[in-house]
Write a structure and sequence with these properties.
two-stranded antiparallel sheet, Beta-Lactamase, about 190 residues, Arc Repressor Mutant, subunit A, about 10% strand, globular
Length: about 190
């Protein structure tokens, strides 16, 4: 094998494409995945958002945000309110969340306890887990006296602004709790401290 041919083989990937181009393509794919996940997080945080809002939060052109939303919509992960043009999380997210929840023993084990407690107190009962600086509800049971039919499953709520978040915060190791409390927490409502 000649030196030139050997060097070309070393600089090519398994499909003959230059390694440099493969790296850029892989990095672009990873960036697209990261952006798509960011779109889902934006919609989870805001409830619904338009293309311009999403593009602004991602720091990309509107056409890029539109393409990302199109792929997510085709997979059922987002939906669009045709009358307002705003996007929201789609039913496909529930399918994914359901598959993840099945694997979480605490959710399965806590279900009967949640339902029994909800029946006893007549209100909605949630099981939440700590996710960095937020509480994420992984199980919910509505009691017969519940005023609303709000679904909190999978929702991230600020630790300082919810009862389950405060319980999680109270039982953290002191240094971790103090670190979280030292951050400036956004007010979730006019009466949130």
């Amino acid at each position: 094998m000649t030196g030139t041919r050997k060097q070309a083989d070393q600089n090519s990937g398994p499909n003959g494409e230059p390694r440099e181009r493969q790296s850029r393509t892989a990095a672009g794919s990873v960036q697209s995945v990261d952006r798509a996940v960011s779109v889902l997080e934006i919609l989870a945080r805001h409830g619904e958002a338009g293309v311009t809002e999403i593009a602004d939060e991602l720091g990309v052109h509107k056409s890029t945000a539109f393409r990302l939303l199109g792929v997510l919509e085709n997979r059922g992960l987002v939906g669009q309110a045709k009358d307002r043009g705003k996007y929201f999380l789609g039913a496909g997210v529930l399918r994914l969340a359901g598959a993840a929840a099945v694997r979480m023993d605490i959710s399965q084990e806590g279900g009967p306890v949640c339902r029994e407690l909800a029946d006893e107190v007549g209100e909605t009962v949630n099981i939440a887990v700590l996710d960095e600086d937020a509480a994420v509800n992984i199980m919910q049971a509505r009691g017969p006296a519940s005023v609303t039919a709000q679904n909190w499953l999978g929702r991230r709520t600020p630790l300082h602004a919810t009862s389950s978040g405060k319980v999680l915060l109270a039982h953290l190791p002191t240094t971790l709790r103090e670190g979280l409390l030292a951050r400036h927490a956004a007010r979730a409502s006019p009466s949130t401290r």
